[in-house]
Input
Amino acid sequence: MAVVIDGKAVSAKLRQEMKGEVDALKARGICPGLAVVIVGDDPASRVYVNNKKKACAELGIYSEEYALSGDTTEEELLALVDTLNRKEDIHGILVQLPLPRQISEQKVIAAISPEKDVDAFHTQNVGHIMIGDYRFLPCTPAGIIELIKSTGVPMEGKECVVVGRSNIVGKPMAMLMLHQNATVTICHSRTRDLASVTRRADILIVAIGKAKFVTADMVKEGAMVIDVGMDRDENGKLCGDVDFASVEPKAGYITPVPGGVGPMTITMLMRNTITAASR
Ligand code: GUN
Output
């Protein structure tokens, strides 16, 4: 029986502290502001964007939404980013990914001012993360570090295995754990005998976007299992990349979906917006 790590509770505690920081900034005449840009009508993106706006409202952070149609051109989106870069009441800019295929995500990310890049996706911020200088925290990996810390289990010297090598989660996750003195392995779709690698993990992070992919035979007895997935099962029900029912009895700690990593990602976005405003 694993300890289920409650992302909602850890988030609530952090957000309470952040509320105080927002109030302190406001007392100095600074109201943190976040612009959220969504292009097209992807239902998952719509849910994420709504949750981000809700979190802003709860903390007293000013937010603006820019909902653009799915046929928006790259030039139009770049022009909006340019406007937001110059807007003084906006400290953070978040362009929800994925973008429609006619728009280059890399070009758009590169156009966001690094000082307002609250996702920490700009190459300049990625470089800072690489050397352990966290101007902006990569939101999902930083949220996971907070979840692990909440358990009191130290990362130093541990075997940490990350499944997935995306720029958003897998790569920065590995870097953050390395900075915590873990021994880190990154696996991906071409990894040979994946289960033999994941079974080595004291801490296993799964971010591949495949419903219930990780089963009990892939997990070491007593391991900590962190599930970054937001998938749908065969009945259309929200689930993670980990088969919770089979893994939970074997794991030492596990995050649920929903209510695990998801709330933490948004909390770290709020932290970055406050950081941007306080500079
Ligand atoms: N799409 C999925 N995750 C994210 C995220 O963390 N930030 C942005 N901008 N888009 C996403």
